[in-house]
TrEMBL record:
Belongs to the short-chain dehydrogenases/reductases (SDR) family. GO terms for molecular function: oxidoreductase activity. The keyword Transport does not apply. It comes from the Bacteria. Keywords: Oxidoreductase. It comes from Pseudonocardia yunnanensis. Its EC number is 1.1.1.-. Pfam families: adh_short_C2. The keyword Metal-binding does not apply. This is SDR family NAD(P)-dependent oxidoreductase. InterPro entries: NAD(P)-bd_dom_sf (IPR036291), Sc_DH/Rdtase_CS (IPR020904), SDR_fam (IPR002347).
Amino acid sequence: MQLDGKVALVTGSSKGLGRSIVLRLAEAGADVIINYSRDEASADEVRKAAEAQGVRTLVVRADVSRVEGIQQLFDAAITEFGRIDIVVANAGMEKVNVPVAEVTEEDFDLLFRVNTKGPYFVLREAARRLADNGRIISISSNTTTVPQMGVGLYGTSKVATGYLARVMALELGPRGITVNTVVPGPIDGAGIFTDPANDEYKKSLISTVPIGRLGTPQEVAGVTAFLASDDAALITGQQLVADGGMH
């Protein structure tokens, strides 16, 4: 899965799953654009780790839940590298253990802005600016396929990207661009599972996973790198589930 000479943009990539995706793509030889919204120090650490792989990097602060921020991110990437070959729409926000009856309008607006509107316009911008034969990958969640109490809002906010990928696969196929979605289960060491306060919730989830453990950011990054590679040239419009058999 060599990506030498490719340029990859990963949203929300200063920590957690996004960080692992950037480093896996860099390991395969891709130059990488690292995006963050608040944590500059963490983004700089990712930059150093990626550059240690011998690739070029660009760190861009941009709020990718807003169209203006998305356009600024793509502008900076094109200015620096002249092209983009791979776009991974990873940025998102988790909110679990909230019954539908307790969801507020503010909760709804925030999660749909971050998890639905943001990725939609990241993919729109990718469709406009990606080089031919490129790769577009969205990171979703198996809460879209495995109903669980307390994830009604979060799961609903993540549903749209899978459908959008199927539509865009049809629209962009003539240009050789593939569009797919990675659907992870709960990821140990990312999102809410970086907080020890959620350890009991983590234990309850592990009991539902056939392989007996949660996935790791590195494992999901490996799936993403595969879809970004030439080996996956015939795979498009698909949702690749990586959840240890929960689905």
